[in-house]
From TrEMBL:
Solcar repeats: 394-485
Name of the protein this chain belongs to: Pseudouridine synthase RsuA/RluA-like domain-containing protein
GO biological process: enzyme-directed rRNA pseudouridine synthesis
GO molecular function: pseudouridine synthase activity; RNA binding
Lineage of producing organism: Eukaryota, Sar, Alveolata, Dinophyceae, Suessiales
Membrane topology: Multi-pass membrane protein
Pseudouridine synthase RsuA/RluA-like domain mapped to chain residues: 169-307
Length: 490
């Protein structure tokens, strides 16, 4: 039974979405071709990085008497990216500029630049970008910094303005309000998620303006440098520097969510660990990470780190716990580098919002407190080592007795703080006031001691002491062995 063109188009599009380009083209080959089906087939070839197949289909458009549209050219040019077939991509771009009257061609230009960059390197791509810039160059008024009512302007250049987006506001809402404040056309060339804060660039012009196309070309060619700061929850990352390479696609049946998948679009995230902290509520680690996006997929940072078992703090959508200690998702765009329509490099930075800076300050304070407690533990161990030595206890017996006693002292001192942490982690809001009973470590200790007595803070002390004491013994045995080894080497 012959397959209808409409059904075949839908099937090819579905296969394209699952990166099943072979199946898509098999369906295509046995069906009467129309505009929609031909475009879907080229798009499927593009998703499968099959530029030769895309060119073959494109070459048959005249035979089929089909008109090449913006969709046609976009998919065909994009198919040249992975293999770096830049000369074919450039020829198609120039053909498109001649054949189509539309001014919105920045994305296609970016695909040409990306293909050139893969083949000949960054310098050649930037040379071609400069030639494209001259095509779009126009007089664009430059908005003075910090003079847009209701907005914090981080920087501006010819055709581009960067503002500080607050968390909890949709990018589209910010753009609409900024457009009203400026009383002139502006275009959004990138966006930040609702819970993300930081640098948000906009083009000073409508969708077809040279400013917008120039920015879009830079984004598509991955010539924009965008740096984020995030806080991850989980085990410490295996290296201070690394890169996550996992394809990303929409979750089937839920377009609001993304997931890693071998059938997704290629996605790369480079990261550097800046600091590590202890989790306020459990034994996991918090890692402060600087992130550089090497591709620009939806929710990329959130999905990538969640996929390796380290979701962002406060990210309830992708596995971050709903904890009182982090009231918002810890993801902030801190730096952006782009070129304006005069070709000048524009670098803008956004300081960490007050609530995130305060959170890091609390975590750092706690980290320093842990270091101080460890130092006191060592001092206590040395004191007991001397005391037991005076009683004639030597060797391993001295190490066991001294470390176990030091662990006992440590447990007595730290147990109230451990109890407070456990109570804060398991607390529930009051049914009437909806308020949480505990708001901080010292307030929790004071409240429990006042209402239940000081001994309530030592419930479960014996297993806690055994855990601390055991760890202390193992730690100091290792320390003594290392010291002995160093003395031998010396």
């Amino acid at each position: 039974m012959p397959v209808s063109t409409v059904a075949a188009s839908a099937a090819v599009t579905a296969c394209e979405g699952q990166s099943q380009w072979q199946a898509a083209l098999l369906l295509f080959s046995g069906t009467k071709v129309d505009q929609i089906l031909a475009n879907a087939a080229i798009s499927a070839a593009e998703k499968g990085s099959q530029w030769q197949v895309a060119m073959q289909i494109l070459g048959d458009f005249d035979r089929w008497r089909l008109q090449k549209t913006e969709i046609t050219y976009t998919a065909a040019i994009s198919s040249c990216e992975p293999a770096g077939i830049w000369h074919v991509a450039l020829a198609l771009f120039l053909e498109m500029r001649h054949a189509l009257p539309a001014r919105e061609q920045g994305v296609q230009a970016g695909s040409v630049l990306l293909a050139l960059r893969r083949a000949l390197g960054l310098a050649k791509a930037e040379e071609l970008l400069e030639r494209f810039r001259r095509l779009w160059e126009e007089e664009v008024p430059q908005v003075e910094q910090r003079r847009v009512a209701g907005f914090r302007v981080l920087g501006s250049g010819c055709g581009v303005l960067a503002i500080d987006k607050p968390q909890g506001v949709e990018t589209e809402v910010v753009i609409s309000e900024l457009r009203a404040a400026l009383q002139r056309p502006i275009s959004c060339t990138s966006r930040l998620d609702l819970p993300t804060s930081g640098v948000l660039p906009v083009a000073l012009g409508d969708e077809g303006s040279g400013a917008t196309q120039y920015l879009r070309a830079q984004w598509a060619a991955r010539l924009v440098s965008k740096q984020y700061l995030c806080l991850c929850v989980g085990e410490a990352l295996p290296a201070t520097r690394g890169e996550i390479r996992r394809g990303i696609r929409p979750v089937p049946g839920n377009l609001l969510m993304q997931e890693v998948s071998p059938y997704g679009r290629p996605a790369r995230t480079a990261y550097q660990v800046l600091a590590s902290y202890s989790h306020p509520e459990n034994e996991s680690t918090l890692s402060l990470v600087q992130v550089q996006l090497l591709t620009g997929r939806k929710h990329q940072i959130r999905v990538h780190f969640a996929s390796i078992g380290r979701p962002l703090a406060g990210d309830r959508r992708y596995g971050g716990a709903n904890d009182f200690w982090c009231e918002r998702m810890f993801l902030h765009c801190r730096r952006l580098q782009v070129r304006d329509l005069r070709g000048r490099r524009l670098v803008v930075k956004s300081p960490l919002p007050a609530e995130l800076a305060a959170l890091l300050k609390r975590l750092e304070k706690k980290r320093l407190a842990h270091i101080a407690r460890a130092a006191r533990l060592v001092a206590t161990y040395d004191q007991f080592k001397t005391i037991y030595g005076n009683f004639g206890i030597k060797g391993n017996s001295n190490v066991v007795a001294s470390s176990f006693t030091a662990g006992l002292v440590y447990s007595i001192i730290t147990m109230p703080f451990e109890s407070a942490k456990n109570r804060m982690a398991s607390q529930k809001p009051d049914p009437e006031t909806k308020q949480l009973p505990y708001r901080g470590t010292m307030q929790t200790i004071s409240t429990v001691a006042g209402k239940e007595g000081a001994l309530a803070l030592y419930n479960g002390f014996f297993p806690y002491f055994l855990r601390c004491g055991g760890h202390t013994v193992l730690m100091f045995f290792a320390v003594e062995k290392m010291q002995k080894m160093y003395r031998t080497m010396g």
